[in-house]
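Quick start: read one record
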Amino acid sequence: MKKFIVGITFLSLSVILYCTIHVIAVMHMPRITSWSGSRYYLAIKATNGTLPFYISIIMGIVGLLLISSEIYNEYAIKNRI
C-alpha cells in the first residue's frame, strides 16, 4: 500500500509540475519571433524550464511504475502467482 500512495504522489506532483511548465511556456511563446525547430521547446528553454520538464516526465514514469508494481503484487498475492 505504501508503494501505491508514493506512486500516486509522484504522479500527481509530476502532472502539476508539467502543467505549470506548460502554462509558463505557452505564455512565453508569443514573445518568440524567430525559431528553428520546435517553438514550444524553445519557449521551455527560454524560461529555464528544461530541467523541471524532464524531472516531471521522470517522476511520472516512476509514479506509474510504482502504481503498476503494487497492483501486480496485489494480483500475484491474490491469485498466488
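Residues 2-79 form one domain.
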